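subagent[fold] <- orchestrator: predict structure for attached chain, return tokens only, no commentary.
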Amino acid sequence: MSLWLQIVLRTLITIVILLVCTRLVGKKQITQLSYFEYITGITLGSLAAYASLERGMHWAIPLLSIFIWVIALLGAEFLTLKSKAARDLIEGKGTVFIKDGKILEDNLKKERYSTDELLSQLRQNNVFRAADVEFAVLESTGHLSVKLKEEHEPLTPAKLGIKVPNAPEPQTVIMDGKILDEPLATIGLNRAWLHTELEKIGVAVENVFLAQVDGYGQLYVDVYDDKLQIPAPSNLALLWANLKKCQADLELFALATQNQEAKKTYTQAADKLQEQLDRLQPLLTRS
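subagent[fold] -> orchestrator:
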């Protein structure tokens, strides 16, 4: 067999084996790396290159070494699941950089972190003033976790005392100009509804790059032609306007009637509807 054909076959076999091993290791290997996983990743890459190109040794030997490394990694992960001591030894511990709003310089030196690197990590967490941080810890994966001081935390409906229902998962109904029937069926819709909605905004299916429907039945469309202006969804705004009109009508009826019992009923209904409007406003008036 010629040299170039050997290299092609070895490389293809190595790719398949690496792919299988990576799937065995799991998604963690490509996201959050511990010390041992980092070393394993580097070594597997070197062994794969060696198996593809080295002619002086049988190519199956480095492939065997790859499997041994993967088995060792799986064993290490099993130990970390069962033992905190093993987890601390293999994956390491987090290092606190900021505590009670104060930077711990000794811990920065311990991790060989400069002030510029700390500020850079804070900026990656959308924090531009160290004074705004209450607590920050460098995780064993190298990621800096940051907790802001309470006065600098973003406002949420919960902090404002507003109860907001959980938003259902959005469904992608068009991808690359092709309609996806399964997501449509998941939310109880069909192609006829989708075509009707697209006709309202004057867009053909084949011109749609991506279309999603949120849990409230709003269709969001992105087209191939970025210069084309797509009208903003108006279903929620129309619903908000109708509810506000109903509430105003109830108040008007209460003022117009001379019947005290009817006036009381209209007033109570208007007040209850206003309470619901206050709860729904964050959902129905979002941009």
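orchestrator: received. Logging for downstream: The first helix runs from residue 3 to 25. DSSP finds ten helices and eight strands in the chain.
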